Amino acid sequence: MSSKKERRSFLQKSLMLATTVVLAYPLSRFLFFYVPRQPRHIKVDKLLNDGDVFINPDFILFYMKKKVWAISRKCTHLGCRLNYSEKDHLLICPCHQSRFSAEGKRIAGPAKKNLARFPVEIIEKNGKSAYIVTL
Ligand code: FES
Questions:
Q1: Fold for the domain defined by 41-134
Q2: Looking at ligand 1, which residue's alpha carbon is closest to its atom 1?
Q3: CA 74, 75, 80: angle at the middle one, nearest 5?
Q4: Residue 127: per-residue pLDDT
Q5: Dihedral over alpha carbons 70, 75, 80, 81 (to 10 degrees)
Q6: Running along the chain, 135 residues long, what does each successive block of 10 average in pLDDT?
Q7: Is the CB of 74 under 6 A from ligand 1?
Q8: Domain boundaries, the chain
Q9: Alpha helices per DSSP H over the chain
Q10: How far is the CA of 88 from the centre of ligand 1 (A)?
Q11: Could you tell me the strand order of the sheet in which 120-125 lies?
Q12: Atom of ligand 1 nearest to the CA of 82
């Protein structure tokens, strides 16, 4: 009699273990599924002259001393959108007042990292220039 109970108990535990293993695989695939982010290419048609700045919701494009670069507008502290002060040539966070240089270097505030820089490609076609910023 007791051998039947032990056998039944063993079968129940084995079935539970098998069910757990069978369900864990698809559940882990669902939970840890990762879709890699695709790069975004944003075209800026405006021709920039030396000292000009182009402000986009995601980045700021600078053209100074014949160099072009793009800086993220996302603060490295908690992600607020930075404002650009043309008077001081600084990016200032409206949330907690972190400050960054036009090159994206952290100057002050609670943010610990510099801003992200995005690659910029200059395209010239039929005498017109455009900039492609890759986010
Ligand atoms: S989010 Fe910019 S300083 Fe806090």
A1: Rieske Iron-sulfur Protein (2.102.10)
A2: 78
A3: 75
A4: 77
A5: -20
A6: 85 93 90 91 89 94 92 97 94 97 96 96 84 93
A7: no
A8: 1-34, 41-134
A9: 2-31
A10: 19
A11: 41-44, 128-134, 120-125
A12: 2
